Amino acid sequence: xVDHTSKGxxxxxxxxxxxxxxxxxxxxWQEVVDFVGSLEPMDLVADIGCGNGRHIPYLAExxxxxxxxxxxxxxxxxxxxxxxxxxxxxxxxxxxxxxxRLPLEEGVLGGFIYIATLHHLPTEAERLVSLESLNRSLxxxxxxxxxxWALDQPRFEELAEAATNGDILVPWTMxxxxxxxxxxxxxxxxxxxxxxxRSGLAVGKLHRSxxxxxxxxxxx
Length: 220
Prior knowledge:
Elements: H1 7-24, H2 30-37, E1 42-48, H3 56-60, E2 63-70, H4 73-85, E3 92-96, E4 109-115, H5 124-137, E5 138-149, H6 157-161, E6 167-173, E7 179-185, H7 189-198, E8 202-209, E9 212-218
Parallel strand pairs: 1-2, 1-4, 2-3, 4-5
Antiparallel strand pairs: 5-9, 6-7, 8-9
Helix pairs in contact: 1-4
């Protein structure tokens, strides 16, 4: 029996959908563009769960070096191709890593974005460890942006009413119609805020945009 909730399984899924993801997810999120635009210039910024790299050009305008992290080797290959085509290859370091085991030193990051990735970690402990690692890696007073899917979406109404723990499999539909399940942990707003605060990060602003929660966080 396949364990669809394992991180290894989720990485395999993103390996399989990487090229199709790139074809269908080219536009940056305006919430991310606005946040990055508000950052001060810095030496090093991180894109945790960089996907196909659609937000990297904006980060590259703010930092001397961008650390692009993903746990899918195929997705990283797509991101590297896109970054090279944009002429930014010399500014980006690509790292294959699990976001609950980030290979980051303490106090090195001037900022980070962590978009639509935290919700793919299968346990609360791993999600907490991931945020704690980012808190340690940030310079004092530096900022980050974290986004997750909200539980109270119309398409997940039955799940929300059932008061489950928010774990769900969401299918990705390939161009040939084949569906591949991806694991998500859907968040309630108070749960998301609590998790961030327990990690030691301060929540500067938490808001809902469409079906996502966005939290602007600050290191202590």
